[in-house]
Specification:
This protein is an alpha/beta fold. Helix content is 47%, strand content 16%. It has helices spanning 18-23, 45-58, 78-85, 101-111, 123-127, 129-133, 145-152, 164-177, 192-205, 218-224, 229-247, 262-283; strands at residues 9-14, 31-35, 65-69, 92-95, 116-120, 138-143, 180-183, 209-212, 253-255, 258-260. The chain has an 8-stranded parallel β-barrel, surrounded by 4 helices. A two-stranded antiparallel sheet has the order 9-10. Strand 3 (65-69), helix 3 (78-85) and strand 4 (92-95) form a beta-alpha-beta unit. The longest helix is centred in the last third of the chain and has 22 residues, at 262-283. The two termini are 23 Å apart. The mean pLDDT is 96.
Length: 284
């Protein structure tokens, strides 16, 4: 069964802003990406590294997954970022623009056994997604849809059709190798209706959650990527019905006019496990 740890909402927080780092301790997010890359100006990058290290040492982030996005290893800051993150006690280090497994090898040479996450945002990354997902230290992928759209020279469409091939390739690779996979950001942070549509699309595709750029987006993502009450109720009834027919020597049940086989109960148990993990996090 896949890890039921919730990753519904994954919020980017600039590593250079103490007030944002403090506020994040009280936000109802499942994971935080502490960003040393795009959200930090060039002349602030060295100071941001120290600011973030101090905030993480202070703690207070609870059960939230702590991920640090470093600068690329081809930049003046990437190697020192990686070496610093190794000692920050985080759950994972996120490398931007991963295009091949060798990129992760280069990072692992600096970070040791710290779990790795990969930003998937280049055409070559899409084509190499299976090999990237198979890396021994990789535990998650994050879709960098803004950079991918730039590289592909696409036009913006609410249905994201120009990005579907890339999204699908990464999704298949992540599922094949047991990695978490998080959908890209929705840029119009005041457009709740548009965010809800895109979250629903991502959830329907199979993404574990959504990367977010503003706290106002958290509730929408949490709702979209949580099992609904109807889904929880159906899961319980499917399990009960199947166990009943199985006890009588049969292999197929019927719930709400639909066939229920063993594979459906596997999905149902995953749904209940995810709901339980979400409830535990909220209680914590």
């Amino acid at each position: 069964m896949p890890d039921a740890r919730p990753l519904r909402s994954v919020l980017y927080i600039p590593g250079s802003r103490p007030r944002a780092l403090e506020k994040a301790r009280g936000l109802p997010v499942d994971a935080i990406i502490f960003d040393l890359e795009d959200a930090v100006a060039a002349d602030e990058k060295v100071a941001a590294r120290a600011t973030l290290a101090a905030a993480l040492a202070e703690g207070g982030y609870g059960a939230r997954m702590k991920i640090v996005r470093i600068n690329g290893l081809d930049t003046p800051w990437g190697a020192e970022d990686a070496q610093a993150v190794r000692d920050m006690g985080v759950d994972a280090v996120l490398l931007p623009k991963v295009s091949a497994p060798a990129d992760l090898d280069a990072l692992a040479a600096l970070t040791g056994d710290v779990p790795l996450w990969a930003m998937m945002e280049t055409p070559l990354g899409m084509l190499n997604a299976p090999q990237i997902a198979a890396h021994r230290l990789l535990q998650g992928m994050v879709m960098g849809t803004n950079d991918l759209a730039k590289e592909l020279q696409t036009r913006f469409r609410p249905d994201r059709e120009p990005l579907m091939v890339g999204l699908g390739l990464c999704l298949l690779a992540a599922k094949a190798h047991g990695c978490a996979i998080i959908d890209g950001v929705y840029n119009a942070f005041k457009d709740t209706a548009g965010l809800e549509i895109e979250c629903t699309q991502g959830r329907d595709m199979g993404f574990d959650g959504k990367t977010l750029i503003h706290p106002a987006q958290i509730d929408t993502a949490n709702t979209a990527f949580s099992p609904s009450e109807d889904e929880i109720d159906l899961a319980r009834r499917q399990i009960a019905a199947f166990e009943e027919v199985e006890a009588s020597g049969q292999g197929v049940a019927v719930v709400d006019g639909r066939i229920v086989e063993n594979l459906h109960t596997v999905t149902a148990r995953e749904t209940l496990a995810k709901a339980g993990a979400i409830a535990s996090m909220m209680e914590g």
